[in-house]
Amino acid sequence: MSAPRVLRHDDLDELVQDAAQSLMDTLLGLQATQETVHLCLTGGRMANQIYERFAELVPDSGLNTQALHLWWGDERFVPTTDPERHALRTLSILARTLQLSSAQTHPMPASGGKADPGEAAYAYAHELGNTIFDVCLLGLGVDGHVASLFPGRLDDTSSSLAVGVNDAPQAPSERISLTLNAINRSRRVWLWVGGEQKASVVARALAGDPDLPAAHVRGQLETLWFLDAEAASQLPQYRCEL
C-alpha cells in the first residue's frame, strides 16, 4: 500500500478546482490504457462542489463516458427519492454533461428494495464482486470517519466488502458502507477535506491514530489527501506539498 501524500491548497476554491481537474486528468490517463474505468464516489457538500466543476470540464475533455463505471463508498438507507441519498444528488449533477446508462451506475440499494441495511450491504457486495476501483474518493468527518465507518465501530479484520450500519452516530442512523477491505484494495484513494474544524482530525489521521478510520485507508498505488490551508493548518510543514 502507498504512504499518504498531502496536497495543500490556499483555499477551498483552489482545492475544488484542482480536485476536479486532477480527477479528469487521471480518468483520461486511465482510459488511454484500459477499456473500463471504475470510480467510487463520495457524498457531501464539498464533493458536490467538485462534481459541479468536474461536470463543467466534461464537454471539451474527450472523456469517454461510456467506459466509465460509477460506484459509491456509502449511502443512507432511505428511499430512492429521498434527498438524503448521495447517489440522487451526485447523479443529478453529473448527468448534466455525462451520458451514463443504468449499466454503468451502481448506486447502493434503497430502503424500499431491501429489508434492512445488512441485506442491502450483502447485495451491494455481491454486485461489486471482484471489481477494483481505479480511484476511490472519500470525505472526512470531524470525528475521523470515512464512508460510514465511524470510530469505535470499525472492524478492520472484516473480509466482507460492504456492511450494514444500524447505529450511526449521525442521522440517519441506518446506512450502508464499503469496508476497509473494499476501500484499501482500490488502486488510488483520494480524500477531499476542507475547513478549520477538521484540522485536528486531519493531523491525527495522518499521524496514524489507530482510533480513527481515516488513518487506516490506503490505496495500492496512491493515497492522496487534498486539503485546503485551514484543514492542513495543524500539520508539520514538511507534510505539505504545493
UniProtKB/TrEMBL annotation:
Query: Which reaction is recorded as catalysed by this protein?
Result: 6-phospho-D-glucono-1,5-lactone + H2O = 6-phospho-D-gluconate + H(+)
- Domain (Glucosamine/galactosamine-6-phosphate isomerase): give its ranges: 11-225
Q: What EC number(s) are associated with this protein in UniProt? A: 3.1.1.31
Q: Gene3D superfamilies this protein is in?
A: 3.40.50.1360
Protein's GO biological process: carbohydrate metabolic process; pentose-phosphate shunt
What are the recorded GO MF terms, alphabetically?
6-phosphogluconolactonase activity
Q: In which pathway does it act?
A: Carbohydrate degradation; pentose phosphate pathway; D-ribulose 5-phosphate from D-glucose 6-phosphate (oxidative stage): step 2/3
The record's keywords, sorted A to Z, are: Hydrolase
Its EC top class is: hydrolase
Q: What CDD domains does the entry give?
A: 6PGL
Function text: Hydrolysis of 6-phosphogluconolactone to 6-phosphogluconate.
Under NCBIfam families, the record lists:
pgl (TIGR01198)
Q: Which family does it belong to?
A: Belongs to the glucosamine/galactosamine-6-phosphate isomerase family. 6-phosphogluconolactonase subfamily.
- Put simply, this protein is called 6-phosphogluconolactonase
Organism the protein comes from: Luteococcus japonicus
What are the top taxonomic ranks of the organism?
A: Bacteria, Bacillati, Actinomycetota, Actinomycetes, Propionibacteriales
